[in-house]
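User: Some background: our group keeps a shared notebook of sequences we're curious about, and every so often someone picks one and asks for a predicted structure to add to the entry. Today it's my turn. The entry only has the sequence so far, pasted here. Could you supply the structure so I can complete it?
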Amino acid sequence: MVARLAKEVITLDTEIGQTETMIENRFHRHHHAEIILSMPGFGATLGAEFLAATGGDMACFDSVDRLAGVSGLAPVPHDSGRISGNLKRPRRSDRRLLRACYLSAQIAIRTDAASRVYYDRKRSEGKTHTQAVLALARRRLNVQWAMLRDHAAYHPATTTAAA
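Assistant: Of course. Here's the predicted structure to add to the notebook entry:
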């Protein structure tokens, strides 16, 4: 029985590897692949997940705010009566898109200096880790939108010290 189960695990592992290879190959054929891969935090798997969640075309979203609303990165009002200005995280959003944006932001904190600076600034403002990562994810979504709109690759901002 152990040998049979081991063979099934090996077979499943092989199938998973083949599926991942097919996903990566399909992703690299997409016309936005190079733009998405140029941004720190996005690899072939997260890039493919981002494209699958958005449908592969940003034209179906009117603006970056609409895309952020669908992804769950834009706060929604939670007002009642005369009380206004209460914002909360939306409950209805595309979980795949939110996951792709959140994970890419977490990776970017470790790999991109500008993302790390932004994250540290949000933490110093008193935000929790999750809130800071979500704020970074929203900021990165704005950059991603502009990159895809302009068909331009990511260029990290170079900061120069004032003399």
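Suggested note for the entry: The chain has two domains: 1-30, 32-77+87-150. The two ends are 73 Å apart (CA to CA).
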